[in-house]
Specification:
- By secondary structure, the protein is an all-beta fold.
- Helix content is 2%, strand content 41%.
- The chain is built from one helix and 34 strands.
- The strands form nine sheets. Strands 1, 2, 4, 5, 7 and 8 form a six-stranded mixed sheet that branches.
Length: 509
């Protein structure tokens, strides 16, 4: 769209008029574009008349970043734009301006400009390359696989890769990705996984302890991590806080944290830990220690936390009755947060897999909001239960587990075979999904997307495996297959090292 600007002034009419026809250019050809960094952006606008290409007129191409306070950047001063794109990835408004030099009158057209790099979007594939943490990217922009993107970013070598995570909603948007390893953890830059010394996780910890988290989980106004056998909490309400001392003083915890990953607004979040010394679930609600909520101990067993919740709002403390009592006396095999919400309470199930001897039980716990101001109207939930003791290989020491947010289904892998357990059946049923001959599965998961446009893709099963020493990534579509992957042909990528974790990098602009 063209905008016509004309500056006028008022003066005494003395009866002497000098009329001039004022033509207006008809600007065309300034169109929305999506380009890659270092490619050439070429545009030749139509003006409707050759006179506007003459020496009496000037031309300017300028871009404004929609998501930054950076000053506008002029990228051309000729009618034809021929620009090698050096802008950082992002969303821009492109302005083309034609000005009459003598009068300052100008006309303008605008368009959307999206600048991408090959790593702006795609699968982040974390590998163990002889023990070294190596990150490959399957680009959704170009379709190519970019190998070892951290090799030349200045970051010290890190060993024992664990996870690659995205916490963009809860951290600095310029550095939203976390690499977790046995050596420690660090953030990575948003554009091309660039690195600075201050990205090291030690800059986010207030205690003099070396931390190497297994995962970082955010909910409400805070986030938690487990390093070793200790859990740490970081408050981010209105400021960038630091992780304080361990919240569990008298017992060790399993390397998992339960949290509500479904609700978009949680104020006084409740987190779930597993006490491995006393073999019981523990709830942690950091805001309980504030004066507003009575200055209570924020860490309690599940019965105590339920009583606290009922005392604040009788009848709204604990939702559901899928099991009678909170379990005790079991070893924790695994814990995973999902968006599966059987009670429509905006409290996604956190699955906790417990075992003792030949027994194996699965508990679906729902975690809400102690204040119940926004999305969650309950504090805790007993959402589901299943006795999995008859599932033949589920307690194998090398078993991997994954839970769907689509329906009440659990998946596990042993060797090269994936099994599905329909948790809604009575009794529960186990069925083989598929076997990858000659391969060992090293990664099994569902990616929880952050952008609503991608939520349906959260049902896709992600499988990383090793074949003859080479890592293979397979993506099995889940939404249309309703979670049954027996007849699904996966999308396959190969050429990796041993795959440890896979997370999708969504565009942040």
């Amino acid at each position: 769209m063209s905008i016509f600007w004309l500056v006028m002034s008022c003066s005494r009419d003395i009866g002497n008029y000098d009329y001039r026809d004022l033509d207006e250019p008809q600007i065309t050809g300034v169109e929305d574009r999506s380009v890659l960094m270092f490619s050439r952006l070429v545009m030749t606008p139509g003006l409707g008349s050759d006179r506007f290409s003459g020496q009496d007129y000037s031309h300017e191409w300028k871009v404004v970043n929609r998501n930054s306070d950076v000053a506008p950047v002029v990228i051309g001063t000729e009618r034809e734009l021929d620009y090698e794109v050096t802008l950082q990835p992002g969303s821009y408004v492109l302005y083309y301006t034609v000005s009459e030099k003598a009068t300052g009158i100008y006309w303008q057209a605008e368009a959307e400009l999206i600048v991408s790099s090959v790593t702006s979007e795609g699968w982040m594939v974390l590998c163990s390359d002889g023990g070294r943490a190596r990150l490959d990217v399957v680009s959704a922009v170009t379709g190519e696989v970019i190998r070892d993107v951290l090799k030349d970013n200045g970051m010290p070598q890190m060993n024992g890769p664990r996870r690659i995570q995205w916490l963009s909603d809860k951290t600095d948007a310029a550095s939203p990705y976390y690499l977790l390893t046995d050596d420690g953890a660090t953030r990575l830059g948003a554009d091309a996984f660039e690195w600075k010394p201050e990205y090291d996780l030690s800059y986010e910890v207030a205690v003099n302890e070396h931390v190497a988290p297994y995962s970082i989980v955010s909910s409400g106004f805070g986030k938690m991590m487990v390093s070793g056998t200790s859990a740490y909490y970081c408050e981010i309400m209105g400021f960038d806080g630091l992780y304080g001392s361990a919240v569990n003083k008298d017992f060790a915890v399993a390397p998992y944290i339960g949290a509500n990953v479904l609700a978009t607004q949680v104020y006084a979040a409740v987190y779930l830990l597993y006490d491995t010394d006393n073999r019981r679930m523990m709830a942690y609600c950091p805001l309980l220690s504030t004066n507003d909520l009575g200055g209570q101990d924020p860490l309690a067993d599940m019965d105590q936390m339920g009583q606290i919740a009922e005392g604040m709002a009788p009848g709204a403390g604990v939702l559901g009755d899928a099991f009678d009592s909170w379990p005790q006396g079991y070893d924790c095999l695994y814990m995973e947060n999902t968006r599966y919400d059987p009670g429509n309470a905006k409290m996604g199930l956190t699955y906790v897999l417990l075992a003792k001897g030949d027994q194996c039980h699965l508990y679906g716990v729902q975690l809400g909001d102690m204040l119940r101001y926004a999305d969650c109207t309950y504090v805790l939930g007993k959402g589901s239960y299943a006795d999995l003791s008859d599932c033949s290989l589920i307690r194998d020491e090398d078993a991997l587990y994954a839970f769907s947010s689509l329906k009440s289904c659990m998946y596990y892998a042993v060797g090269g075979t994936v099994y599905r357990i329909d948790l809604s059946a009575d009794p529960v049923r186990e069925e083989r999904q598929f076997t990858l001959p000659g391969e060992d599965i090293t990664c099994l998961k569902f990616n929880l997307y952050q952008k609503s446009d991608n939520f349906q893709r959260s049902y896709d099963l992600i499988v990383g495996s090793v074949r003859d020493g080479e890592g293979v990534l397979r993506i099995y579509e889940g939404a249309m297959s309703d979670g049954d992957f027996r007849e699904v042909e996966p999308v396959v990528y190969d050429g990796f090292a041993e795959i440890k974790d896979v997370t999708y990098k969504e565009r942040i602009y």
